[in-house]
Write a structure and sequence with these properties.
With about 450 residues, the chain is an all-alpha fold. The protein has helices at about 15-20, 30-55, 60-70, 75-80, 80-90, 95-115, 120-125, 125-150, 165-175, 180-190, 195-225, 230-260, 265-285, 290-305, 315-335, 345-370, 375-385, 390-405, 410-435, 440-450, 455. The protein is built from 21 helices and no strands.
């Protein structure tokens, strides 16, 4: 064949495919990098300041971090100075996705590290009471959320979303709790050593596991439609991943973590932990499940490895809690547009959803505690703790927006539930726990864990 073809790179001996293969990927444009750095720096600075302010007011830092996005997003800065907002926090998808990537890394590591710190022994010991509290606190708000979704106007549904999928998704959003926010609140109020604090965490663990399962199933339904085969595949994928993690992942993780732990310094152990969490997240994402579910399960597996020195993970814990997680919460707030609440139907829907979320979770957890023979103040404290939605609610809302199940208005409503319930928890807990006497067992636990507060700090997402 003598016809002249496209020129090839010297010395490659190949055709155009070879030339394309060796061509370097264009670097990020200088202006895009500048805007990314300015936006990231502004988000982290304001999140730090508002997080500290929230802590001084007796609220979880996540409240201030979520408010960061509200102030810098379309609600405040976008309305007051749109030119400034569009310059360093542009709405172009490509630019915004740079912030998203940092935030997603933060939430995956946060959820994974939370799984590392789950007290497996306590969950086993108080599993019956925790299961009753969690089950009642899941089913009641789930049912109320589904029922409420059928009463909301169609304008609140994502484009092209079935009412059934939207209803299931809202039900899941109403029934979840958030281990990081619960634990941070208990830690800040010095309640982590109390029996109610431990029981709230144990029930929260079960809540989170069920929440990831439900979220994964509903996410699959949102992409493929409501089909029995889809539901069966999602359930089997979740159970299969958990079994694989327990039977294969646990011994494999133990081997690599022990090898990393023998190295000098915390670096190899930190890097190995991050790799395992991200690979677990990638597996569940590839199965059509949510990446956060894989991160949580792998974190749980890592935490169950005998002899794991959690203190060597302190540098990772600090980086995630102080830098990466606040960026995720702040960027989540950037998508909130509270100006949508100026529309009377949207405002009415927001008030209804918030009321249903609070009533369902409080009542469900209270009934579960009552059935476990706890007194009314203990039941009230459990309801307040389980009602805090923070991290998980934001994740659910973000997933719903990404899948198109929620639009901007409903996303704002769901994230607003996270903010309101996180603000409510501390004062109610303080009031209820002041009526619950501390036992000798709790005092021993407090003294026994006083030297391990660094590990407890992890739970402060």
């Amino acid at each position: 064949m003598t016809g002249a073809g496209p020129a090839t790179a010297p010395g490659t001996g190949g055709g155009p495919d070879v030339l394309a293969a060796v061509a370097p990927v264009p670097v990020l444009p200088a202006h895009s990098l500048l805007v990314f750095l300015l936006g990231l720096g502004a988000l982290l600075l304001v999140a730090l300041l508002l997080g500290r302010l929230a802590t001084r007011c007796g609220l979880p830092a996540v409240v201030g971090e979520l408010v960061t996005g509200i102030l810098l997003g379309p609600t405040v800065l976008g309305a007051v100075a749109p030119g400034v907002s569009d310059w360093f926090l542009p709405r172009q998808a490509e630019q915004f996705h740079l912030l998203d990537a940092v935030g997603q890394l933060g939430v995956l590591l946060l959820v994974g590290l939370t799984g590392v710190e789950v007290d497996v022994a306590f969950v086993r010991r108080r599993g019956g009471a925790a299961a009753r509290i969690s089950l009642a606190g899941l089913l009641l708000p789930l049912g109320l959320g589904v029922a409420t979704a059928y009463l909301l106007p169609g304008s609140l549904l994502g484009a092209g979303t079935d009412r059934e999928v939207f209803a299931l998704f809202l039900g899941v959003a109403m029934c979840v709790s958030a281990i990081p926010v619960i634990a941070k609140t208990l830690l800040d109020m010095k309640l982590l050593h109390r029996n109610i604090g431990q029981l709230t965490l144990a029930a929260g663990v079960i809540d989170d596991i069920c929440g990831w399962l439900l979220l994964s199933v509903v996410s699959a339904l949102a992409t493929t439609g409501v089909r029995a085969g889809t539901v069966l595949f999602s359930v089997c994928a979740v159970l299969g991943f958990v079994l694989f993690a327990a039977l294969v992942g646990r011994p494999a993780s133990a081997a690599v973590l022990r090898a990393a732990g023998r190295a000098d310094g915390p670096g190899p152990l930190v890097a190995t932990t991050v790799v395992l969490i991200l690979l677990g997240a990638a597996v569940t994402q590839s199965l059509g499940l949510e990446a956060v579910f894989g991160a949580f399960v792998v974190g749980f597996v890592i935490g169950s490895v005998p002899g794991l020195d959690r203190e060597r993970l302190a540098p990772l814990r600090t980086t995630v809690l102080a830098v990466l997680a606040p960026i995720f919460f702040a960027s989540a707030g950037l998508r909130m547009d509270l100006t949508a609440l100026a529309d009377a139907p949207v405002l009415a829907a927001a008030l209804a959803v918030i009321a249903v979320a609070i009533l369902g979770k409080f009542t469900g957890a209270f009934l579960g505690a009552w059935s476990s023979r706890l007194n009314r103040w203990e039941a009230l404290a459990l309801g307040a703790g389980m009602n805090a939605r923070g991290v998980i609610e934001v994740v659910v809302a973000t997933v719903g927006l990404r899948l198109g199940v929620l639009n901007t208005a409903t996303y704002t409503i769901v994230v607003l539930v996270a903010v309101v319930t996180s603000v409510m928890a501390p004062p109610i807990l303080r009031r209820a726990m002041s009526r619950v006497e501390q036992t000798a067992e709790e005092e021993l636990r407090r003294l026994g864990t006083a030297d391990h507060s660094g590990a407890a700090d992890l739970r402060g997402g």
